């Protein structure tokens, strides 16, 4: 975020724009324009459903928020790259492996972009993909469970920002590095100012298994050291290509806000991935030794596994002609967006005064005619005019991202002038503009990145809210704004707060997924090694100083609920199986002094909380999810005795009756 802010302010100097132009993102004292929201258009009556699911990145919280459109109501936070203090994701023994990486356990990452799976260029409602930005990873979220099913680390990468972007049949999800760095198998102990010699870029093609969705790195392409920012796959006529924006073609290694803005133009990289596939088939790939984690969650045993992979296939453009082309693009391009027909590629230079629109047909012709302006590190540079359809003139300041309504219109977010500009793909004329409150980053139209946008609504994801909401101390809420785009003019209809900092989001018709939701996990299919599939299987066993508790939860008791014989220093594993087979009846589990978390267990599922007996005494445990009128009765006790004691290991529910005679340690005065 601050990068964009700095650049925005710096751009005032660069472009020589009067400071007044920046006031667009300051609180506007005249809020009439902002107060014209038509509540009836976003009103979803109590008990009624929204029209769209909106899958929204949480930015620095590393999670995804699921909202209804048009109501803006928040339904769920899906933990992806961060531990969750709601479900126990990343805390339970079963889910900890999901956050494993070659750097070890990473509890929190930064998530910017969402890509929903597609078939024939349209949403198919199967999976959502998301990028882990800081420690480069890709995640796949199952839209039947709204849970993270898989996380794949990306080697040779640092700052996985140009990711995930998906092909029209979900063959590949790409991951291009923001920071070029020395490759993983090179000695990285080099002076930072040897960027030009030693730093390389890398673009990963992650194949998606069409049946299971499982991800694997099919190949990587080495590139010159630049910063990759964003991308889109071609579609329709341009299917087979990817377009990436890149900045820092200056290859600066310090003070990028000045040094990476020196050149008049950076690049869009046009990448022919069908060609790359041919080179892979022809054996042009070289194996490189690397190390990266592949983590998979199984709904069969309700557990994740983490595997280290040690090899990746790399393609060197020097061995692969006609695969990569650079297209000059003004001033630090950010979003690179492909229209629904696949013909137009819209590149938004953050510091540029116009928006170039490239034509796929013209790019093809330029390649055939060799209309090149030399090369950049051996990669041909297509002449700007030869690839250009035209420029949108005076669109506003600080163009970032563009989406499409499928009716021939494009909508571009303008960070610096804090507005959305609607323009015609046909004649590139600006048709309408609306202010955003304030400083919009991404915008999204349901189905906007597909071949068949659903249109109707547009959502702005803003960086600053200032005076829009009741203040909450130094940090104000993050926010989105909903616009009606069914008419000629865009109309603001709703402000709604979001969690984390929203970057990209994709909305999908509710009808595509709402009836496929997993309601329970079948208890008889539970393959967890510590599952207790009935109260008769509940037990406690000691293995050295580990104590394993096979515990069941059902309204409204835990079995066992009395456990004795645990000793000081023991590591106790509570494997809690929820025996319920009804939708929406989770049970929770917490025990006093737990150093990691609580857990929340879905019907038919088993989850494990590890707990250390750190002192002698009685430790209550209980269900944390209000599950019945007797929820507050859903509790038990665990007794910890000194290491040298010979208290036998016992467990029970309902049979450990009150003692009738004074027992050791009991209060004698009250037990007469
Ligand atoms: Cu523009 Cu990370 Cu997609 Cu945010 S990025 S705004
Ligand atoms: Cu189970 Cu409350």
TrEMBL record:
Region (Disordered) location: 649-672
Main location: other
First and last residue of the signal peptide: 1-20
Localization of this protein: Cell envelope
GO cellular component, one term: cell envelope
GO molecular function: copper ion binding
CDD domains assigned: N2OR_C
Identification of the protein by name: Putative nitrous oxide reductase
PANTHER family for the chain: CYTOCHROME C OXIDASE SUBUNIT II, NITROUS-OXIDE REDUCTASE
NCBIfam families for the chain: nitrous_NosZ_Gp
InterPro entries linked: Copper_CuA, Cupredoxin, N2O_reductase_N, N2OR_C, Nitrous_oxide_Rdtase_Sec-dep, Nos_propeller, NosZ/Cyto_c_oxidase_sub2, WD40/YVTN_repeat-like_dom_sf
One protein family per Pfam: nos_propeller
Keywords recorded for this protein, A-Z: Copper, Metal-binding, Signal
Comp. bias (Polar residues): 649-658
């Amino acid at each position: 975020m601050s990068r964009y802010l700095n650049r925005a302010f710096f751009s005032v100097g660069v472009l020589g724009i009067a400071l007044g132009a920046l006031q667009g993102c300051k609180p506007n004292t005249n809020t009439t324009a902002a107060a014209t929201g038509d509540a009836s258009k976003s009103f979803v009556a109590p008990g009624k459903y929204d029209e769209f699911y909106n899958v929204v990145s949480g930015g620095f919280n590393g999670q995804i928020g699921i909202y209804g459109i048009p109501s803006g109501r928040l339904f769920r936070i899906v933990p992806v790259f961060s531990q969750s203090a709601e479900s126990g994701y990343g805390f339970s023994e079963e889910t900890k492996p999901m956050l494993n990486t070659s750097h070890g356990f990473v509890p929190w990452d930064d998530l910017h972009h969402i890509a929903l799976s597609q078939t024939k260029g349209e949403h198919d409602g199967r999976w959502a993909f998301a990028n882990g930005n800081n420690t480069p990873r890709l995640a796949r979220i199952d839209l039947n469970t709204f849970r993270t099913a898989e996380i794949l680390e990306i080697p040779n990468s640092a700052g996985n920002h140009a990711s995930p972007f998906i092909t029209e049949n979900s063959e590949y999800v790409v991951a291009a590095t923001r920071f070029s760095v020395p490759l993983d198998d090179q000695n990285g102990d080099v002076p930072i100012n040897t960027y030009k010699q030693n730093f390389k870029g890398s673009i990963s093609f992650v194949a998606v298994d069409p049946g299971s969705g499982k991800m694997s790195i099919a190949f990587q392409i080495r590139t010159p050291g630049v910063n990759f920012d964003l991308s889109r796959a071609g579609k329709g006529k341009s299917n087979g290509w990817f377009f990436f924006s890149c900045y820092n073609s200056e290859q600066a290694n310090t003070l990028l806000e000045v040094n990476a803005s020196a050149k008049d133009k950076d690049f869009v990289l046009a990448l022919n991935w069908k060609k790359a596939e041919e080179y892979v088939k022809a054996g042009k790939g070289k194996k490189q030794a690397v190390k990266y984690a592949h983590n998979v969650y199984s709904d069969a045993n309700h557990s994740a596994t983490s595997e280290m992979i040690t090899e990746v296939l790399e393609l060197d453009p020097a061995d692969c002609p006609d695969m990569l082309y650079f297209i000059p693009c003004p001033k630090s391009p950010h979003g690179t967006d492909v229209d629904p027909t696949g013909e137009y590629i819209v590149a938004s230079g953050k510091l540029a005064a116009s928006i170039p629109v490239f034509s796929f047909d013209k790019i093809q012709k330029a390649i055939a005619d060799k209309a090149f302006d030399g090369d950049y590190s051996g990669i041909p540079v297509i002449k700007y005019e030869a690839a250009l359809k035209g420029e949108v003139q005076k669109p506003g300041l600080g163009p970032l991202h563009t989406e499409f309504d499928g009716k021939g219109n494009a909508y571009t977010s303008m960070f610096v002038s804090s507005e959305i500009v609607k323009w015609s793909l046909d004649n590139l004329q600006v048709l309408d503009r609306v202010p955003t409150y304030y400083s919009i980053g991404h915008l999204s139209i349901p189905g906007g990145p597909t071949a068949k946008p659903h249109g109707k609504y547009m959502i702005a994801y803003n960086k600053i809210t200032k005076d829009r909401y009741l203040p909450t101390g130094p940090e104000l809420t993050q926010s989105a704004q909903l616009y009606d785009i069914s008419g000629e003019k865009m109309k603001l209809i709703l402000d709604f707060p979001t969690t984390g900092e929203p970057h990209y989001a994709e909305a999908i018709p509710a009808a595509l997924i709402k009836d496929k939701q997993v309601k329970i996990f079948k208890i008889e299919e539970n393959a967890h090694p510590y599952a207790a599939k009935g109260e008769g299987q509940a037990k406690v066993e000691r293995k050295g100083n580990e104590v394993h508790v096979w515990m069941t939860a059902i309204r409204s008791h835990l079995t066992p609920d009395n456990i004795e014989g645990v000793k000081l220093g023991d590591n106790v594993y509570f494997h809690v199986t929820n025996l319920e087979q009804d939708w929406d009846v989770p049970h929770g589990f917490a025990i006093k002094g737990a150093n990691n978390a609580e857990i929340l267990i879905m019907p038919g599922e088993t989850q494990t909380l590890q707990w250390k007996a750190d002192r002698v005494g009685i430790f209550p445990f209980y269900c944390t999810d209000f599950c019945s009128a007797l929820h507050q009765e859903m509790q038990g006790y665990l007794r910890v005795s000194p290491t040298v004691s010979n208290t036998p290991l016992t467990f029970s529910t309902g049979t450990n009756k009150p003692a009738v005679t004074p027992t050791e340690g009991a209060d004698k005065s009250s037990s007469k």
